[in-house]
Amino acid sequence: MKIVLVTGSAGLVGSESVRFFCDKGYTVVGIDNNMRKVFFGDGASTEWNLDRLLESYRTNYTHHNVDIRDKEALASIFNIYNRDITLIIHAAAQPSHDWAARDPQMDFTVNANGTLNLLENTRKQCPEATFILCSTNKVYGDNPNLLPLVEKEYRWEIEENHRFYNGIDETMSIDYCKHSLFGSSKVAADILTQEYGRYFGIKTGTFRAGCITGPGHAGAELHGFLSYLMKCTITGNNFSIYGYKGKQVRDNIHSYDLVNAFYHFFKSPRMGEVYNIGGGRTSNCSILEAIKICEEMTDKKLNWTYSEANRSGDHIWWISNNTRFKQQYPDWSLNYTTNEILSDIFNQNATRWS
């Protein structure tokens, strides 16, 4: 029996991973204790997503309500499946800048210590398995804000002759910048995963994503930009824009496209690899542009307010460059544009949110 182990399995990337690999006939073991409800309140609970998974995949999905900070409970799961585990997708995390500043201790223990616990269990129990970390572009801190940006009518942009016009690649430094405490804890997880590949010879892939999104996202004000924006447009709730005139550009990758990249890496894994991954020039938008799409799609006006103060460490402009991953895995490609992502979010959640 070959096992795929997924952390954060009721969240956006985790649930997409469960569906993807169950549909391909794998046996999937999920770990998720609904910490998203703890972080962002009842409205962000992932119980509805877990119920869908348990209903759809009764025969090849097993769920464990375990905290990744709990070393003993985590070790017991790895002991059960041991070397049958062929792939670990680590998608569990505290994902918010603002929340991390409220409780740095919890943020770091979840993001950094939780990752270390998983890597150690992999090294000891299933060293031949492939380990994939869902990292973030926030490991680059606010270095992207030093780029020579140009203000357009609805977005910030970069000149076409700039080397990062087609997206920021892995050569950008992660040093000498403000990361936010969330970015710092994710840097620790990011580097740990690379090091377990290079030092211990484990097959590890670190994927630094932009905005990951899709219909499985329980959008909350502090995390889940497109999902929360669509939710506010449908329900009439207020949406707050923080700084940069609402022209800050976000790179959007559908959770399916990201998990499909994980699958390509799993089929031909490497040791200690790191990739920027996202919508690139195929799928990106500013907040103002996203508002326009949501309003047209729902035939409703968004109730939004603006604050001059931007979020600390927030990016003004981010577009991922997928070239490194595409060079190594040329059969992978993006399937979703931003418009198609928002359409998917709307079609699968409009009734529930209404």
Protein model, in words:
41% of the residues lie in helices and 18% in strands. The model has no long low-confidence stretch (mean pLDDT 95). The protein contains 12 helices and 14 strands. The chain has helices spanning 12-23, 35-40, 47-56, 71-81, 97-102, 104-125, 180-200, 225-235, 255-267, 287-298, 323-328, 338-353; strands at residues 3-7, 27-31, 61-64, 85-90, 130-136, 149-151, 156-158, 203-209, 211-213, 239-242, 249-254, 273-277, 284-286, 304-307. The protein is an alpha/beta fold and 354 residues long.
Give the number of helices.
12
What summary fits the major beta sheet? 7 strands, parallel
Q: Find the structural class using helix and strand composition.
A: alpha/beta
- Lateral arrangement of strands in the main beta sheet: 3-2-1-4-5-8-12
Our estimate of the beta-strand percent is 15-25%
Structure summarized in a few sentences:
This protein has 354 residues and is an alpha/beta fold. The chain has twelve helices and 14 strands.
Key attributes of the depicted protein:
single chain; 354 residues; alpha/beta; seven-stranded parallel sheet; three-stranded mixed sheet; 12 helices; 14 strands; 41% helix; globular
Give the topology.
Elements: E1 3-7, H1 12-23, E2 27-31, H2 35-40, H3 47-56, E3 61-64, H4 71-81, E4 85-90, H5 97-102, H6 104-125, E5 130-136, E6 149-151, E7 156-158, H7 180-200, E8 203-209, E9 211-213, H8 225-235, E10 239-242, E11 249-254, H9 255-267, E12 273-277, E13 284-286, H10 287-298, E14 304-307, H11 323-328, H12 338-353
Parallel strand pairs: 1-2, 1-4, 2-3, 4-5, 5-8, 8-12, 9-11, 10-14
Antiparallel strand pairs: 6-7, 11-13
Helix pairs in contact: 1-9, 4-6, 6-7, 8-10, 8-12, 10-12
